[in-house]
Queue: 3 jobs
Job 1
Amino acid sequence: MKLPFPGRLLAIAVLSSLSLAIPLSQAHAEDKPKVALVMKSLANEFFRTMEDGAKAYQKEHPNEFDLVANGIKDETDTGNQIRIVEQMIATGANALIIAPADSKALVPVIKKAMDAGITVVNIDNRLDPEVLKSKGISVPFVGPDNRKGARLVGDYLAKEKLKAGDQVGIIEGVPTTTNAQQRTAGFKDAMEAAQMKIVSVQSGNWEIDKGNAVAASMLNEYPDLKALLAGNDSMALGAVSAVRAAGKTGQVQVVGYDNINAIKPMLKDGRVLATLDQAASQQAVFGIQAALKMVKGEKPDVDADNVIQTPVELITK
């Protein structure tokens, strides 16, 4: 049916107004960046706290960005983390905030994201600077000085509970991660400065069960062991169980790193001597803030090493 001429004019006017309204609303939606937060294992309380902090920040700033948060099953599930990043590329994320499970293996997919025009910010565990350089990319790192933090914990342990020559063991995180390497280096700095004897360094893969197995093995092999220095609190929880099972509670000191809620009762009753708070709930927030600046074409407040340093604090009883 053909509309009379005035009716056709009205229809054209209505359609024109709709065609103007739709792109405007779409433009508004497009103005709000989609930020993807990709973490390591959500079985680790540290990363659940990180996710909660990021979600709370998005609720406080709902008009500034949309947030998609995801994590992997366990700390060594690098392949799945790569797949998650690829999914975020495919679904059109504007910014990617990533705590990589591996400092080198994630670099190729990070480059793929950047080639797709996605702004990338690295948090928690630093991507390997040399591998980034080999791919011709630069990614700002937002996070703590892990070596400094571990040194604070180790110095406190040495000062409060040990004497020169005492035997200690270090339970390291995933050894291909920069933060595990830096924390082990910080523990070694402290122990060597205090003239302790480091009898073993073994990986507990950041996990409670593996930390427990490694601690039990060390306690069995070195009956004179005086302390276990764990690279995160999950492994420290495992170490506490191993110390108890060996009947050495109070004889072997345990320290950790992260200040998760599960460790707090143990700090109070002495099963854990010290840990390190690295602002878990705010670390992703700092990353999001840096990414949003970059999406707008602004430069984040990085130092000469392309790092935004976040705070650390020694936590004791």
Note: The CA atoms of residues 107 and 134 lie 10 Å apart.
Job 2
Amino acid sequence: MNRIQSLPSLPPRPSDAHKGTFGRALIIAGSRLMPGACGLATQAAFRSGLGLGTVLTEAEAVPSVASHIQVATYLDWNEAGRRLALEDNLGFDALLAGPGLGMDPPLRLLQDILNSHSRPEVLDADALNLIAEKKLSVGKKAARIWTPHPGEFQRLTGILPSSDEERLHAGTQFVKDRGGVLLLKGPQTLIIDGDSRYALNPTGNAGMATGGCGDVLSGILLALLAQGLDAFDSAVLGAHIHGLAGDLAKEVHGEISLIATDLIDYLPQAFTTLS
């Protein structure tokens, strides 16, 4: 195994850039009862440099999410189905599926969307749970980041590793079986790919063990993929920035009072450390 310790970097932003320069993303997230996860992921993506983003969610969830995230455009499932029927690929450079999606989205349509593109993607939260329950199936794809927390990893594999050695062994088998890049969340988040590369992320703190922080991470990862980083580099850099934003927030709010939106507030400062 080859442990990676250097931090990837984003390319400089050209002075003649436009919105499309920094990627177009499709965010399949949120539902009537869980619009917040979608909002957190979307806002984090834009704070992480995304150029353009379209949110695909339940029609009933659009007003709630849109009232907080004015920079995105929106699709509901009916419109997405109509566009796919017209062989419109929905126009994106990277895709995120899962935050707040719930366990009863239009599964056939979601399956069609996931199977009809070859772009990089992030699978998180309920997308992972739907796969674990065999309600959703995906083939192997190198340009995919899986982002389970330990409980989701156990549902996907039947294994709950504890030590770093166990996590590395189980993670190696996971990417061998399913392809892509695994980002196994937790203290010292593990990132591992099919080329026997791995990294342990040193940033982050216990205050981040609160609802919504994983949604923020998925948005960061999406933005990095959309800006052209490969899946492994996006996972390594995204985990670092996510944890660093949490560490910066901890200095002001402490661990007890830290909430997910604090991470988004400190993303600009975290990204400035890269320059």
Note: The mean pLDDT is 95.
Job 3
Amino acid sequence: MRHRDSDGEAEGARAGKAPFGGAADVDLNLLRTFLAVYRTGSFTAAARLLGLSQPTVTTQIRTLERQLDRELFQRLARGVAPAPYADELASRIVEPLDALATVTGPGGSADVHPAEPVHLAGPAELLTHRVMPALAPLVDRGVRLRITPGLTEPLLEELRAGRYDLVIATYRPRGRALTSVVLTDEEFVLVSAPSWAERVGGPARIAADGPAALHGVPLVAYAEDVPIVRRYWRHVFGKRLVCHPAVTMPDLNAVKAAVAGGTGFSVLPRYLCAAELTSGSLVLLHDPDDPPINTGFLVQRPGSSGNPHVALVRDHLLATVRAG
């Protein structure tokens, strides 16, 4: 017979059972195994992640399916795909299990060694303005981070080589060696300081005359080949950019500072200059119905890490950065 405490929870839940609604009285180890298979998409990869044999993982998943009376995975030629109920179950258990793993380790028993740092890399500006603030609560919970800024192509190569756990990429990588999910969309905006906006006639003139209104205004750019500005011109104005930058700096924060200081105009991600647009130190020169959007992807090697904090960081970023 099970006795209940004053909160109505079964004492069995405190002895390794999990009070997850339809998953009540399920051994936590079965749920950990389920989550590993769900994340890696493979019994074999989950076994490596957990330090178990593949037959043990298969047996545990079958046991869990019998206990829940639900199919959790559809067996494919390569790996498995989650059944509809698996998505629901994962959404309910991921946060409590990952929180538990931060203090007990991935196997559920006390671990005298703290989890290894999570190595995360990506564009400097996105890391600075959106990712690091989002990860602050995890650092408070004991997650250690090692952050590296850089360009997408070399970072992905280093991810394949095992240097990083997670990379934020500006394009979706090809091939099966890496898995990626959409993390965020960034909108690009055409901006200048108020003094230049007044001299060119403001957004109304640019809406009427197009980019010709900016003739004679210095262009401040990230690089000599001005990829962001060229894309804006092609997408919004349907024209080829013909002017050359007056100033180049491979740092979008520096570009923003130069433009706000009155150097000229540029195209920046909206998230990077939202505060300046609100304060008026930068002016939105054009507001097209269809601004150019760049999608950022969160990339990792499937089943490559036994560090529970990697999954914790990944899931937290997907939840908070997407919401933000």
Note: The domain at 186-294 is CATH 3.40.190.10 (D-Maltodextrin-Binding Protein; domain 2).
